[in-house]
Amino acid sequence: METVLSIFVGISLSAAAGFRVFVPLLVMSIAAHTGHLTLTSGFEWIGTTPALITFSIATLVEILAYYIPFVDNLLDTIATPAAVVAGVILTASTVTGLSPFLSWSLAIIAGGGVAATVQSMTGVTRLASTSTTGGVANPVVSTVELGGATLLSAFAVFLPVVAVIIVGLLLMVGISKLRRKSTAVQ
């Protein structure tokens, strides 16, 4: 059961990285630093004071940058590969009870995949917001994404079963919307 919960934590934090790259890393760092989350061997550095300070600064910069019109769209191009890397790290650092091969395979496929999917959905949403409102509504989108990253990260650490259900619903809705848009284009 511990292994399943650790997978839920990792995948949920990875999904949160699709909203904001550094928020789930900061939440993970705080949780590990305070003893609420045990990290797998080799990832203990995430819970150190220097990592906590670094993730705090990076999170603040990321949040502020997403409130600057058109910079937010530029950040989405950088955030996509960064979210995938963060998703892999977030999952790899939490999964326990599996062989290294299975842990890393899960981290790459599920962690990176979920982060990329959520990031793609947020990028499409921001692009739609920019094209329909000239960027005026983008701060609202940024606030919703920040809230999503924060809440999903907190749920991942403290209520991982709830978090993974939210991730599943989020993916179902997002994939459904992306499919409708792709069929409308054809």
List the main descriptive attributes of the protein structure presented here.
single chain; 186 residues; mainly alpha; 7 helices; globular
Characterize this entry briefly.
This protein has one domain. It has seven helices and no strands. The protein has helices spanning 2-19, 22-33, 49-65, 71-92, 100-133, 138-158, 160-185.
What is the β-strand count?
A: 0
Report the major sheet: none
**Spatial gap, N to C terminus:** 45 Å
Report the sheet-strand fraction: under 5%
Shape descriptor: globular
User: N-to-C SSE series?
Assistant: HHHHHHH
Q: What is the count of DSSP helices, taking H or I runs of 4+ residues? A: 7
The poorly predicted ranges are none
Which percent bin holds the helix content?
over 70%
Radius of gyration: 16 Å
Structural class: mainly alpha
How many individual domains? 1
Report the average pLDDT across residues.
Answer: 90
Give an overview of the whole structure.
The chain is mostly helical. The chain is 81% helix and 0% strand. Helix 1 packs antiparallel against helix 6, helix 1 packs across helix 7 and helix 2 (22-33) packs antiparallel against helix 3 (49-65). The protein is globular, with a radius of gyration of 16 Å.
Write the layout of secondary structure elements.
Elements: H1 2-19, H2 22-33, H3 49-65, H4 71-92, H5 100-133, H6 138-158, H7 160-185
